[in-house]
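=== Structure Prediction Worksheet ===
Name of assembly: unnamed complex
Input type: mixed (protein and possibly other molecules)
Chain count: two
Listed entries:
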Amino acid sequence: MSSVTYAYAAPSSLTDGLLALETSGGQSTAGPLAHPRFFSGVVTEPAVAATGLLALADVAKARYHRPREGGGMRDPVVTCNGDRLRLESFSSCGGVYARLDVLAGGLDGEVLARGTTNVDVNGPLREALARVGRHDPLHLGVGPDELTVTTLDGAVVEKKVPLPERWIRGFGEVQVIASRLDPVAELPRLHAARLLRSLPRAANARAEIPEHGVELQGPGRLATLHPLLRFARSLRVYAGRGGGSTAWELELPGMRYTLVVSPRPARGFSGEGATLSRLAEADGAADADLVGALLEFDPTIEVGDLADRSGLSASRVRTALTWLGTAGRVGYDLAEASHFHRELPYDPVPSPRLAAARALVRSGSVRVHGDEARVTSNGTTKRVHVTTGECTCDWWFDHRGSRGPCKHVLAARMAAAHTGGPARPAVPAPRALRGRTR
Amino acid sequence: MTAWDDVRKQIEAKSADGVAAIVVGLPEEDRRAVATELPGHLRTVLARATWFDEYVPAFRAAGAGTIGGAAGVATWLGRRQFNMSWTVHQDTDRLVRVLRTRPADWLADLAGRLTLRLSLPGLPGLDLALALLRQTGVTPPDHDPLVIGWARDGGPSADDPLLPHLLPRLFEVDGVGAAMESPSWAASGPYWVRELKRFAAEGRVDRRTLLDGCVSRFLRGGDARELRFFATLHAELEAADPAARRAGTAARARDYLRLLPAAPVPVAELALRLLRELDDPDVPDPLDLTEALDALLFRPEAGLVGKGLSWLAEIVERHPALADECAPALAQTFAHDSPTVRRRAVSLALRLPVTDPAPIREATGLLPFDLGQKVAARFGGEPTHPDPAPPPLTPDTAPRPTTVTWAQPTDFTRLLSAEEAADLVEAADPSWLRTEHLLVSLLHLARTDRDGLREALAARTYLDDHAYLSRLATWSYPYAWLKAIVGFLAGTRPVPADPLARLPRPGEAAPLHLLLLHRCAELLPPLGRGVIPPVLLATPTEPTGHIDPLALVERLERYEAAGAEPGEADLQQALLRLPAAVPAEAVRRAEKLISAAARTTARWLAQDGPPQPRVGTRRRDRHVEIALRTPATGLPLVDGILNSLLRGDGGRYAWHSNMWGMESWPYLLPSHPDIVAAYLIPHLDSFPTAIADLTAVASSDGPFAKVLAWDLVTLLNRGDRSARETLTYLAARGELPTALLGRALARRARNGDVRMSRLTRALEDLAEAGGYQAVWETVAAALPDLLPAPHERVAASHTPLLALGLRTARWCEARAEIPELAALASRKGNSDALREARALNEYLTSPRPTPADHGP
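=== Predicted Assembly ===
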């Protein structure tokens, strides 16, 4: 397992009403910087922002499926999109994603640059944040102020935490999964409180909200919503068709807090395979590079606009956005129903399934005959139906496409695309291979 | 003999003390020689030892005594083989003895390295690390597991050199509080609390520093398990003198205020207790105070909010000027889930000396009507409506819930073309109704357009598994039989010899399945003889699957005219499809016929409706077992179906035969809906079926009403959508078996297999949708079994059901005498459940209003 070392010029602090969030290396409109400075100004709702930051820190620290074991805490990621600040964190178990969007109405100050970086969160800062009240003025600086930069050369705070590959992949994939969720309910504050408080808390509990058609395993993972409820105006719930991941979004004064929760506590977002089909498309990488070069930390990304500027079709732009999402280069904002640009300060990790599929194609283990392909791996030959994405392997038999295509299907599609075989349909039909069930 | 030989001998003897005695006195070069040999010898022993753990102490002593560098020793002691999850080291004293010969800075280095190797959850090596840290007096490195280990290690001693270094860290490291309470260790928490209190009293440790540490730990957050230890410590350290305590609280007043909104209950209660003691009007700041009060009163915990209300009352009493600032916080508790909180909030609001009643007035609508009225009388505002009854459900407002199992009706008057028939065969494994439709069409085509049919069928490629079929001794699916028929009609295969031998024996397949197989199979022998049956008797004439008796008699007449006998299964299925009402003409015409089939039919038509079995149900574990009994009719397939023991595990039949063709059952037995239900019920849990499937075929006052009620409770508890729809549908028709449902609910709630809250919510929804009559009947039926016996405690989970009972009883103006309720109502006590029980009992026993009471 690799690890990451965050290097800060000073620990983040909150003294005399100044919340100084220190930054580690990141990307900005001015290129890569060791300690980028993004914002300096006033937060108009200090108590909400402080509680939101604490919620993010709690998510970062949590391992929801094994609450008694701590995990290494990875510092939250902050993105300055010009008119708003987005703070993201991803749970240690890889199954809960949280984002606090401090919107234009919640900020009053100067944007110094746009970009993405990590921010330091530490014990004394947590303590100080918990002390912030509604009437305490709160100045916010994201990035070291001039004084720190001139007096301190380099990093004084270094934190090394393990960085599992599945964690980075999950952080990317959750954006793609979020982009497929639809709103199912909007509840005003009191109703939201009643609903959330009625859910069981146990780690392995299962909650069903029949009136909204939402099913949630491990509802204890919504715990960080509770302290924010008293500020909330409303709660929006998003769900996918046929169950799976859900998203919970609190509308707060001047900001929004969003949680995306995986189908089960012990099932992280990586391995859901939501992105793989698109990633297997041949021109994806090149299109992603092209589209990626056009992004400038925009708060919302217009597909049509990008299509015009890149000369690609809207559908290829969407595929490129899936690529960029998996690489941690775009996030998805459910409330705006739009992607936004941010560059996760971690190196993207290719999916092992995709890598295995590429290796199969390279080694010539795939033979395509029309709509059927035979893929030889580990000494046995699997039959793949290219169009429907069915395979005779055990993994596909177990999951039936619920976790995306298997490596054989991916390999077959790559090979088929190469030989001009049948095109992939928009929605692969999860149907049993005949002859397999009986 | 070299030093290594001596050491090795001691290792072989598993004598760690022997090793220690040798290595302590070894000169430098001998040590080095031994250290060089150790790894190789470790590999040898690992390879051959069956119980390696016995060698571990000797190896550790040898390494600690001979390896040159501190880093090397740390690595050696930390080897995985020495630190398995089951290993318990008891060699700290020995190792300390062995290591004593090393220089002080070397030891300090080792102590630091061993500390940094500590890891959770097991913390192997903790003992030695602590011993060396204490011995060397070195400043321990910043390493969270060390602090947790130190906390777990039993408790502080005043002369522990680690105390000044680690005590402040105790309040910073996550997991310390949980470690103090961890049940897997002798919980060290109480000992810590006692000792720290003593240290503070003796002045060894500053009391204020400890209290500040606790408060800052609270502010950093954590769950109750993590913070409970610090809450206890805090409570023990507080000054006994009220004035001194108040001074301490005043100094940290803002911090305590900030704990009220979200801290775990023990911490929030502690903070609230201290804040309530303050008497200075300016501490805390009124703005901060109202903010904290606002957040505190929004919390879900009724106990905490209750204490918060008392605090609010105290504040306002002391500083009446703050009444207006406190009003919004108070007003929001009107929406609290706890009736006790709501009642207290209202009585407090009525006494509140506000100058601006707007916040309270606006919140009046959140209250139930009776409380809302009181508030409105004092402050104005709109109380909620007096909870008028919703418009009652009518059959047309509740649509029939969708079934998931049953097939759509098939139109048998429209026969398939040759191409369509060929398509359907190719589609493989169609449902039974479609198979039946296909059979009728194929026979018709074979009579009218044999060549066209042959051509259409032969053009397809699906006939390639004949070889496979012919190897099978038993054809267990209708599709196999269909293939044989199609193969013959396509002219590609002869009819197999003795086809009926391939049928499963009666005990091997479920009775309904056997009927279907027989219907297919019996077509083959006549086809082989070149005879195509003139008509199939059993083909339905109605969308429900029924056959018009006159149509059946006509078909029999055609057989007689053709001089043929119909198939036995065909005849028996036809009889099962006859309706209860038979026109006299049909009986007359049937009696004129002479064939055996016609005589059987005439007898069937002459009886008083189709035979109806007696039904017995019983519950075994979680499964239902159903026995059907009917006097023998002499028709084997019919008797098989109407005399059967049906079980969830399929009983003695091949499991697949229990549900193949399930979707068509209502069309096989259109006059026996309860029998269809009997066949379905055992599978309600194990197949993707819905309760609506059951209600679509079974009458709710029939033999399965009890099963239906039981399953409704199961499924409502699960939040099943179909169950909720079914509940509404049946209630709208007045067909809900309310008495059975209420009793099932009570029994299962008592067994603890359902959650009262979920069932109450489902009933509440039904009542609000207009089905309150059914809900009241259900609640009334549930109460006698549900309510606690005189020696039992009353459960809080009954409160919402009692409240719902009162609402629905009012809506239907019900009066009743429920002795169990009256007994409960007469108990002493003040709980919400008792209060609701009293209110309900009072209403039920009050005299009915005379028409004059309604006023003009």
